[in-house]
Amino acid sequence: MSVERLRAGYRDFAANEAAGRSPLYVELARGVAEDDELLAWLDRLPVGKRQPNLLFSAARVVGGELDGYEELRTLLSERRDDVEALLLARRTQTNEAARCATLLPLLAALPQPLALLEVGASAGLCLLPDRYAYEYDAGGATHRVGGGGPVLRCRVRGPAPLPASVPRVAWRAGLDLEPVDVADPEQVRWLEALVWPGEGDRLETLRAAIGVARQDPPRIVQGDLTTDLPALAAEAPRDATLVVFHTAVLAYVPREGRAAFRAAVQDVGATWIANEAPRVLGLDPASVPPSMFALARGGEPVAHTDSHGASLTWLA
Ligand SMILES: C[S@@+](CC[C@H](N)C(=O)[O-])C[C@H]1O[C@@H](n2cnc3c(N)ncnc32)[C@H](O)[C@@H]1O
Predict the structure, then answer these.
(1) Do residues 273 and 135 share a domain?
(2) Residues 139 and 253 in one domain
(3) N or C: which end of the chain has fewer CB within 10 A?
(4) Omega cis (within 30) before 113
(5) Site to substitute for ligand 1 among 51, 57, 122, 132, most atoms within 8 A of C-beta
(6) Is the pLDDT of residue 153 over 90?
(7) Model confidence over 192-207: pLDDT tens digits?
(8) Is 137 in the same domain as 218?
(9) Positive or negative CA dihedral for 206, 241, 177, 293?
(10) 287: how many CB neighbours lie within 10 A of its CB?
(11) Is the dihedral of CA 150, 153, 158, 162 positive or negative?
């Protein structure tokens, strides 16, 4: 990737992803976008290790919370080797339990019980949709589902089939290149650092969901979704509806890998639920509002969702 493409990526992150969510990340991304020396350093790092949220999370773990761009710049002058070592060691594994609020209508509508198989599961917080409480704000009317755990709040537009109860889960398992262990404080610190500053509710939700997961951690198997899905799917009980799902994962998988994964989902005969940027599902990016995800069942879009689960727009 050239320095100019990196510059454009950081500008785009400031304008379209961090704007309205994290004023600090807007400032940091704008600062990096105009800093030729930092861009040249990032350009020398491997693919997948240069993106804004990874850099800013690593900087916050090394240097503590940052006030603004000048502080980031100072940190990267004084402790760049430490930040680089963390960048190289870690990956973007943001685990957002709130995404369960957008998956719930599809999961609850399937024949129960479910065998849930999440690829790209991180710590597996999205594998626990039956252990959270939900509050859907549907045009002023509040629809509550479930109980216990954190309350996941989601704004709803359109005729979403909001369920009366959470799904029944007979079996669950995750697959990830690098499973995150909710019992390991250092790994949990990394998950926390992946939450953008200024989004206080997300950090609270993360901590509460980790508390729920620690009571009975979901099993996450180390493996690659492009090759290891069939072996794990074969372990699911036959008398449950097998659902293979993923959220915010395919952007990290090369195009050929995505095609191999789609073929494997078909082969194992699972219901396929995807919550992803439209581009990585082969959908027209213009068909979804900027920075939102498409929620699709069997490859067919059914809704547009906030990328962190805060809203759901059901398509008529
Ligand atoms: C941004 S996180 C999303 C986690 C979770 N799905 C969520 O929405 O909260 C992406 C996860 O996908 C995993 N991942 C990326 N490529 C993968 C692959 N080829 N096979 C398995 N997991 C992968 C990463 O390790 C990371 O944990």
Answers:
(1) yes
(2) yes
(3) C
(4) yes
(5) 122
(6) yes
(7) 999 999 887 899 999 9
(8) yes
(9) negative
(10) 11
(11) positive
111 plus 212 within the same structural domain? yes
Q: Give the CATH number for residue 248.
A: 3.40.50
Say how many Å lie between the CA of residue 14 and the centre of ligand 1. 23
Helices 23-33 and 36-44 pack at an angle, to 10 degrees, of 90
Q: Whose CA is nearest to atom 11 of ligand 1?
A: 120
CA of 316 relative to ligand 1 center, distance in Å: 30
pTM beyond 0.85, yes or no: yes
Q: Are residues 277 and 178 in the same domain?
A: yes
Q: Determine the structural domain holding residue 286 and report its residue range.
A: 97-314
248 lines ligand 1 (CB under 6 A): yes
The answer on 116 and 14 residing in a single domain is no
Contact 129, 245 (CB under 8 A): no
Residue type, 150: P
Q: Which of 89, 106, 135 is the last residue of a domain?
A: 89
Query: Which residue among 176, 224, 261, 307 is best mutated to probe the pocket of ligand 1, counting the most ligand atoms within 8 A of its Cβ?
Result: 176
> Are 64 and 182 in a shared domain?
no
In terms of domains, do 74 and 105 share one? no
Mean pLDDT of 48-61: 95
96: helix, coil or strand?
coil
